[in-house]
Amino acid sequence: MTQTIRLLLVDDQNLFREGLHILLSTQPDFEVVGEACNGEEGLKLAATLNPTVVLMDLRMPVLGGVAATRRLHSAQPEIRVIVLTTFDDDEDVFEALKAGAAGYLLKDTPSARLFEAIRTTARGESFLQPSVTAKLVAEFNRLSAAPVPPKQSLTEALSERELEILKLVAEGFSNRELATALFITEGTVKNHLTNILSKLNARDRTQAAFKARELGLI
């Protein structure tokens, strides 16, 4: 039996929230458990409703999406946050991901992609709009052209396979794409990613990629 994914919608546009609620309710494995009009209200509802995934707008009154995501990730790290916004400026993207967002989508994304993003992040993976992935790749390329600080040591070194996976993660590969590219199962990919996150003391694959760059590993 498919597990129900509990959703919390945080957006200051009432009409958009209502439409999104109706759209998500068409999926048998989704349940919209609450709606909030700003980040502060969203945090209060998350504490009581314990949703699986929060769909978070970025620019809202009282408390914006980045600050709300950071506080939510600190208080309830098991809750996955997907930023759903009209903005994809570089600063917005990087700040949201650094705050702990597991996904980043624009509001004009097709419904099928939104559904996929929700199910993907609910499984503990990340899901980024293709344009956002391109921005991350561009940022990594920019950093690669800059002087690299001396490599720092880890408590436990990454294996050759883990480094290989980490490099592909930094390029925006999903678990399925990693499995296909490396001729291994998705389960094996997840095991490697678990080890990578543990060794890098990273909360998710995006932070792992950034930390790896800072350590001079990729």
Automatic annotation (TrEMBL):
Answer yes or no on keyword Acetylation: no
Matching entries from Pfam families are given as:
GerE, Response_reg
Q: Which GO terms describe its molecular function?
A: DNA binding
Q: Which GO terms describe its biological process?
A: phosphorelay signal transduction system; regulation of DNA-templated transcription
Listed transmembrane segments: none
Q: Which CDD domains match?
A: LuxR_C_like, REC_NarL-like
* Modification sites for 4-aspartylphosphate: D57
- What InterPro entries does UniProt report for this protein, alphabetically? CheY-like_superfamily, NreC/VraR/RcsB-like_REC, Sig_transdc_resp-reg_C-effctor, Sig_transdc_resp-reg_receiver, Tscrpt_reg_LuxR_C, WalR-like
- Segments forming domain HTH luxR-type: 151-216
List residues of the Response regulatory domain: 6-122
| Assigned keywords, A-Z | DNA-binding, Phosphoprotein, Transcription, Transcription regulation
Please identify the protein, giving its name as recorded: Response regulator transcription factor
Its taxonomic path starts at:
Bacteria, Bacillati, Chloroflexota, Chloroflexia, Candidatus Chloroheliales
